[in-house]
Design brief:
The structure holds 2 protein chains of 2 kinds.
Chain A lengths: L5 H8 L12 E7 L4 E10 L2 E10 L2 H14 L4 H5 L4 H7 L8 H4 L1 H14 L1
Antiparallel strand pairs in A: 1-2, 2-3
Helix pairs in contact in A: 1-2
Chain B lengths: L14 E2 L2 E2 L1 E2 L10 H14 L9 H20 L8 E4 L2 H16 L5 E5 L8 H10 L2 E5 L9 H7 L4 E7 L11 H10 L3 E5 L3 H4 L4 H4 L3 E5 L10 E5 L1 H4 L12 E4 L4 E3 L13 H17 L1 H20 L4 E4 L10 E6 L4 H10 L2 E2 L1 E3 L4 H6 L5 E5 L6 H17 L5
Parallel strand pairs in B: 3-15, 5-6, 5-7, 7-8, 8-9
Antiparallel strand pairs in B: 1-2, 4-10, 9-10, 11-12, 13-14, 14-17, 16-17
The chains are: A alpha+beta, B alpha/beta.
């Protein structure tokens, strides 16, 4: 089946940047109330740049692998750039067709990141 | 074991992702037989008119057809008369109607409402809200380790302040069957009224309100082969007089003057405005269909199929099933989880094999959390399902284990 590519399963079973950051700049939680998927994201930010990221999550393969891929992608990036990042980027990282019913799963990590940037800038 | 009814349900010919559709999401909604769809078409092509209003032929015909379904519904659930039947939008609206039209007048601060730990949000949230507004207390009947209602725990909750007991007839998550007659007798002993959410149970087994002795019973047409948009509220005759209207407007009034109005006293006071006439009439065809097959035959078929599925799925060590031990206490709803695989992923992989199942909280979040999981995958069976459907589901499960490299 297309949705469960080797890449997605690798990220799901061995997520990148998994864990916590003790000297983090900010921590946010996000969840999908409908299915119970959760993500806790820690960011270390210096000079408007994400210099480290770690997350702990639970949920389906799509939500968790999407977060794992996104965490690789955003490390070293400027917040000003990430703020403008479109959801298309997430779909490109996943490289599999996402049906309407799984959009919320695919974008949970993205929503967590945008939540973190918003909170940081407050 | 098969009732051989597949041919009556056109949608079952559909293919999904190139595979034959296996529909196992019946607890969410059932499919519709052709006779039900034909009646809808017939109504709009030959009879369409508003009811209770005109003296012209079409209006008289549609009124007669609509009221005939009230009679049919009363007979289907063993009510004393058609006057005890109110049509609503769905079971949820029926429950909200009881909260607004009966409970507001009869339950106050210091009183208690009991619901069970098995409830769907529809029979929990309206009572949470009611208690928040009135200051009445909400109590919960606990569960046994076998997913059944703990009747000793229930007995302890009952007292003279208990005014209303609201229970489901069957859980939409664990399939647990609730002893409705016993619960009703225990409740009546302290003078409490009883509301039964029969949305799941009436679909699979014969239901008789006179035998149960309950005061209110609600269910939805769409889970029992009828169209969406029709709900039923049974109200014991003696209570109708002390209830206020649910909504105000046309058709529910006796006389209207410029600054005040008088309302109808019978069931009609709950049916304001133009009703869902066509769908109610089509619901009548669904009741006829169920009656023809026979509720006892349906119960037997569904339980045997469930037992077969439970046995097949139970053979997988990494699969955990949430269902009462004794098959006699089980409705045909099989909730399960697989070690290391999220239920959403299970449902997506099943879908790729044409098997429609549900994953998530099933609108019963407190119950699912009580099971110690964040969500479950759920298969639910009905009269058109077959052993072959279960076998396809087993193949889909094997695919899940293979994709996620789960060792069994």
């Amino acid at each position: 089946m297309d949705l469960y590519s080797e890449n997605i399963l690798d990220h799901y079973q061995n997520p990148h940047n998994s864990g916590e950051i003790t000297d983090r700049t900010i921590r946010v939680f996000e969840n999908n109330p409908l299915c119970g998927d959760t993500i806790q994201m820690d960011l270390k930010i210096k000079n408007d740049t994400i210099i480290d990221i770690a997350f702990i999550g639970s949920g389906c393969a799509i939500s968790q692998s999407s977060m794992s891929m996104l965490s690789d992608e955003i490390k070293g990036k400027k917040l000003s750039v990430l703020k403008k990042m479109k959801t298309d980027k997430v779909y490109k990282l996943l490289q599999v067709p996402i049906s309407l019913g799984r959009v919320k799963c695919a974008l949970l990590g993205y929503a967590t990141l945008q939540h973190a940037i918003k909170d940081f800038e407050k | 074991m098969s009732l051989n009814l597949q041919k009556d349900f056109p949608i079952l010919k559909r293919r999904v992702h190139g595979k034959k559709l296996v529909y196992l999401d019946n607890a969410a909604t059932s499919q519709k037989p052709k006779v039900v769809m034909d009646i809808l078409q017939k109504f709009y092509t030959t009879m369409n008119a508003n009811i209770h209003r005109g003296v012209h032929t079409l209006s008289e015909e549609s009124t007669a057809a609509y009221e005939a379904v009230r009679e049919k519904t009363a007979k289907f659930i063993g009510a004393k008369s058609a006057g005890e039947i109110v049509f609503t939008k769905n079971a949820t609206e029926s429950i909200n109607c009881v909260a607004v039209s009966w409970a507001k007048k009869n339950i106050k601060k210091g009183d208690e409402i009991i619901v069970s730990a098995l409830e769907h949000h529809a029979n929990l949230v309206p009572w949470q809200e009611f208690c928040r507004e009135t200051g009445a207390a909400l109590k919960i009947i606990p569960l046994t380790a076998d997913f059944l209602l703990d009747l000793e725990g229930f007995e302890k909750l009952l007292n003279l302040n208990t005014k209303l007991v609201c229970v489901t007839g069957m859980s939409n998550v664990t399939g647990s069957i609730v002893p409705l007659k016993q619960i009703t007798e225990m409740s009546r002993a302290v003078g409490a009224k009883v509301l039964i959410d029969a949305a799941q149970s009436i679909v699979h087994m014969a239901t008789n309100v006179s035998d149960i002795g309950c005061d209110f019973l609600v269910f939805s047409s769409h889970k029992m082969l009828g169209p969406m948009g029709v709900g039923v509220l049974y109200i014991k005759e003696s209570l109708i007089g002390q209830m206020s209207p649910y909504m105000y407007g046309g058709d529910m009034i006796e006389t209207v003057e410029q600054y005040s109005s008088k309302y109808k006293m019978d069931y009609a006071k709950f049916e304001a405005g133009t009703q869902n006439v066509a769908d109610v009439i089509a619901f009548g065809a669904a009741l006829d269909y169920l009656k023809k097959v026979g509720m006892n035959a349906i119960e037997k078929h569904d339980r045997e199929l469930f037992a077969y599925a439970k046995e097949k799925f139970g053979k997988f060590k990494t699969v955990k099933i949430f269902s009462p031990n004794n098959i006699k206490n089980c409705g045909p709803v099989l909730s399960f989880v697989v070690d290391g695989v999220h239920p959403h992923d299970i449902a997506s992989i099943f879908d790729s094999e044409g098997v429609a199942i549900r994953a998530g909280f099933h609108c019963a979040e407190p119950l699912v959390r009580r099971l110690g999981v964040s969500s479950t995958a759920r298969m639910s069976f009905y009269l058109y399902n077959t052993k072959a459907d279960v076998d396809t589901a087993v193949k889909a499960l094997q695919k899940v284990l293979k994709i996620f490299k789960v060792k069994n």
